[in-house]
Amino acid sequence: MSRLPPRPRSRSRYDTKGFWLWDLLQALGLIIVAYLVAVFVYLVLVRLSELPHGQLWDEAFRAPLAFILIVATTVVILIPYFQKEWDKGLRMFSICTAIFLLSFSVLSTTGLVDPKLPLTLISRYAIEPLRHLLKF
């Protein structure tokens, strides 16, 4: 008699699958939340790199400190991705957040493309009309 727990059954191809639109909305929601979390984390890390003051902390040390903070945070964010037994949604969220964080930081420092463009579009075409509609 084996002492190992029974293997979980994989989903059969005959099982009913959820509606495709629901899966698409879940994926889109995951991507939007991952983007917002990455932007927030990036802004917090840049703010933390600007906190130290003194004779040694001039502008030349702020960029390397921000780089070290971004790399360390990316490694911490990627921990769930390498845990195969964790939830698939959490693993996808961690990889999307890490990709968005790295791309946001690269695009912010190089200045090739404005990485805040999605936030600007959401603010301009969704939040501002809603504010005017609700008179807020």
List keywords for this structure.
66% helix; single chain; 136 residues; mainly alpha; 4 helices
Could you give a quick summary of the protein structure above?
This protein is mostly helical. Helices cover 66% and strands 0% of the residues.
Describe the fold and architecture:
By secondary structure, the chain is mostly helical. The mean pLDDT is 83. It is flat.
Number of strands: 0
By secondary-structure content and strand pairing, the structural class works out as: mainly alpha
Sum up the overall morphology in one term.
Answer: flat
Note the gap between the termini. Answer: 68 Å
Beta-strand level of the residues, as a percent range? under 5%
Poorly predicted segments: none
What's the alpha carbon Rg, rounded to whole Å?
21 Å
Helix content: 55-70%
Number of helical elements: 4
What is the makeup of the main sheet?
A: none
Topology:
Elements: H1 20-49, H2 59-77, H3 88-110, H4 117-134
Helix pairs in contact: 1-2, 1-3, 2-3
